[in-house]
Amino acid sequence: METGVTSDSPSKAARATTLSDVAAAAGVSMATASKALNGKRGVNPSTRARVEQAAQDLGFYPNQQARSLMFGRSGSIGLLTTDLEGRFSLPILAGVESALRDGEAVAIMANASGSAEMVDRHVHALLSRRVDGIIYVARGTEPVLPLPDSIKVPVVYAYGPSTDADDVSIVADHRGCGRLAVDHLIDVGCRAIAHIGGPDDPATIGYMAARLRARGTLDGLAARGMDPVLNRPLFGDWTEAWGWEAVEQLLARDVEFDGLVCANDQIARGAIDCLAARGMRVPTDVAVIGFDNWAPVAQTARLPQSSVDMNLDELGRVAARAVLDPDGFPQGSTRVAGRIVARESTAHASLSTP
Amino acid sequence: METGVTSDSPSKAARATTLSDVAAAAGVSMATASKALNGKRGVNPSTRARVEQAAQDLGFYPNQQARSLMFGRSGSIGLLTTDLEGRFSLPILAGVESALRDGEAVAIMANASGSAEMVDRHVHALLSRRVDGIIYVARGTEPVLPLPDSIKVPVVYAYGPSTDADDVSIVADHRGCGRLAVDHLIDVGCRAIAHIGGPDDPATIGYMAARLRARGTLDGLAARGMDPVLNRPLFGDWTEAWGWEAVEQLLARDVEFDGLVCANDQIARGAIDCLAARGMRVPTDVAVIGFDNWAPVAQTARLPQSSVDMNLDELGRVAARAVLDPDGFPQGSTRVAGRIVARESTAHASLSTP
DNA sequence: CTGAAAGCGCTTACAG
DNA sequence: CTGAAAGCGCTTACAG
Predict the structure, then answer these.
(1) A9 touching chain B per CB within 8 A
(2) In what residue span(s) does the HTH lacI-type domain sit (chains A, B) (predicted)?
(3) Chain centroid to CA A121: how far?
(4) Chain B window 156-215: which residues touch A at a Cβ cutoff of 8 Å?
(5) How many CB pairs under 8 A join A and B?
(6) Which of the two ends of chain B, N or C, has the fewest CB atoms closer than 10 A to its terminal CB?
(7) pLDDT of residue B85
(8) In chain B, positions 266-325, which contact chain A (CB-CB < 8 Å)?
(9) Which residues pair with A194 in a beta bridge?
(10) Pick from A13, A108, A296: which is nearest to B108 by CB?
(11) Which residue of chain B has the CA closest to A17?
(12) Do the Cβ atoms of B124 and A270 come within 8 Å?
């Protein structure tokens, strides 16, 4: 649509405002303009004001690429992930992003959906953008092969640690979280606690978390001088169906229990549904807690479920700090603690004195 | 740990290999090295080979920042989102990312968790990185205020369209998807179909989608010459609890139905659970389909649920293409079609002849 | 086919 | 306090 604007020089639209435009507008040299805009001292206040005004008027954004060329750092870090679904990586990315923001850095995404070749290409792309570091979020909790060490920038492994103990890895404290879950159940009055685990098969994604969470439950019970309801946790997979079946197994074995630690929220959901179907009340008869605090399941279920939040957000923030200051971080795995999010499924009216 | 390596010059580690390093190693000028590496013609094959070898040996990655300075394009595009949870934005981002990758471009994330001021800062950060374009993924399906048009690079609005019809927006075809859902239910043999909607309150996130999906259901019914079970769809919110309650309402009204279109997967889940609790079999007595094909709910439920996948991935890819080639795209909203993902909840043995 | 020179947009010593 | 010059790493006409 033709409007009144007549001589809107086409080159104007094509080209972003540059420092020399600003300098010209303010009637100073580029050097002075640069100093003024960067708050360097030794610039006449009135000159500075003039330059700032000009920059404002022209909508000037300094070209970071040019600046990085000088500084040798790009102020961006690469976020390499192989976790397609993003279930775990997304909260981590969000954490990274927020921490970077404080340091004025920016995250460049690279989603390598699996193949080693893809990882390579993405590392290449990241490196050629001169990222100041790379955070690698692999698919699961299992240790991952480190990236080629020809990479000269700091690499931090998040969630799944590197198999190389010399690398810096930031992981979730699955085992510690198992203890938290038990403590919570005991605190709301449970006296007979069983653990329904995830997969016990090393080939399965998340196997490591399943083991550690189960271990943590046993730790927690032992610390409080209690025996688990079963001498061996039940292991299955990560699904609702398994949670349901596990409860049926418990019921069939005719053991008594009033608390269930389920290795994730979906298992917890299945367990809760099965208990309800069998006429048991949650949380009155049995309190149930899961892991991951995954909103779509734990929070939006008809019976809101208590869960151990793995603090993935914080994990991301820590990873960002680590990649920005690798020397300030210990090699090996740094564990980030989780926290209890209590909801209906453990809202026991605590049994008072026994 | 001290190893055999003695004179590993420290500056080597600090500084990435540069084109002039490569040129020196290959014994040619930078100009020639550059041409050789970029596959320009007019370079002696043996020279080219020598340069390539040197680049390989030295682990050379061309500095994109320097290249962009010349080309005037950075090969990166900004991904601005306000959808914290990432429920809808993540699949879109994945799509964008994959499409960009084909064009060798890269995505820079910027998660503005809401405030307009944050959006501003992030736009600023993106622009100073000289992104070639911005894809804005807002929180919901509602139209969003356009970014300031002082922005000189192409902006594409994804999922939630811009309120300005002159902007390029790529949205999901909620209404068309409603038709798809109905067609599917009819195809599996349903003859009495009700719609359980989302929120009817314009102030609620996703309200637009709720309306359009309901409209689509009515469209679909009309197209097949059928009346909806209720003359007005039920509206509530996006939760399981609402799905459950809606079914109770239907049952209370004593209407007959054998098919349910639920405005999202969680509503569908609640509906299915309620039907089961009331002794009705899904899908034998009632087939149920939801929207979003959200894996954690639709796919992992004990009864896997059919759903209309909004093809958010494709939406992201289209958005990426649009931002890379804005003139090739129409102003206003481009709708991306969805698709049916059939699972147990609609696995009707189709009624044969009536 | 090869290379010296200029330039992309900015910053930083170094003189004035 | 201000500005001319050199340089960050690369590419592209332009001579040779």
Answers:
(1) no
(2) 17-71
(3) 24
(4) none
(5) 127
(6) N
(7) 67
(8) 266, 270, 273, 294-297, 300-302
(9) A260
(10) A108
(11) B152
(12) no
Residues in chain B within 8 Å Cβ distance of A150? 59
Domains A75-173+312-338 and A174-309 share a fold: yes
- Domain residue limits, chain A: 75-173+312-338, 174-309
Residue A239: is its pLDDT beyond 60? Answer: yes
Closest nucleotide (C1' vs CA) to B35 is: D11
Contact predicate B239/B173, CB 8 Å: no
Sorted by sequence, the CB contacts under 8 Å of residue A46 that are 6+ apart come out as: none
C-alpha–C-alpha distance, residues B314 and A83, integer Å: 19
Q: How confident is the model at residue B10 (pLDDT cuts 50, 70, 90)?
A: very low
Least confidently predicted of A5-19, A173-187, B118-132: A5-19
For range B27-34, the mean pLDDT: 92
Amino acid in the structure at residue B105: A
Instruction: Give the pairing type, strands B339-341 and B306-309.
Output: antiparallel
CB atoms closer than 10 angstroms to residue A242:
25
What is the Cα Rg of chain B in Å? Answer: 27
CATH 3.40.850.10 correct for A174-309 = no
Q: Which amino acid is at A22?
A: V
Q: What is the mean pLDDT of residues A310-318?
A: 95
Strands A106-111 and A76-81: parallel
- DSSP of B244-267: HHHHHHHHHHT---SEEEESSHHH
Contact yes or no for A129 and B106 at CB 8 A: yes
Query: CA B146 to CA B66: how far, in whole Å?
Result: 32
Write A30-36 long-range contacts (CB < 8 A, 24+).
none
Which DSSP symbol is given to A344? Answer: G
Q: CB count, 10 Å around CB of B183?
A: 15
Is the C-alpha dihedral spanning B4, B10, B11, B13 positive or negative?
positive
- pLDDT tens across B34-81, in order? 999 988 888 889 999 999 999 988 889 899 999 998 888 889 999 998
The token duo for B134 is 């911005």
Q: What are the residue ranges of helices labelled H in chain B?
A: 10-14, 19-26, 30-37, 45-58, 64-71, 89-102, 116-128, 174-187, 207-223, 240-253, 265-277, 312-324
B226 to chain A nearest CA, in Å? 33
Does the pLDDT at position A4 exceed 50?
A: no
Question: pTM for the full model?
Answer: 0.89
- Which residues are within 8 A (CB) of A1 and not within 5 positions of it... i.e. 6 or more apart? none
What amino acid occupies position B216? G
In the predicted structure, residue A102 carries a pLDDT above the cut 80: no
Q: What tokens does B276 get? A: 């089961």
For residue A250, give the H/E element and its range: helix A240-252
- Report which residue is nearest nucleotide C9 when distances run from CA to C1': A66
- Quick one: tokens of B27? 């014994």
Q: Does domain B75-173+312-338 have CATH number 3.40.50.2300?
A: yes
A173: its two tokens: 């404290």
3-state secondary structure of A340: strand
CA of B345 to C1' of D4 (A): 76
- How many other CB atoms are found less than 10 A from the CB of residue A129? 25
Question: Which of these ranges, A2-11, A61-70, A183-192, A262-271, has the smallest mean pLDDT?
Answer: A2-11
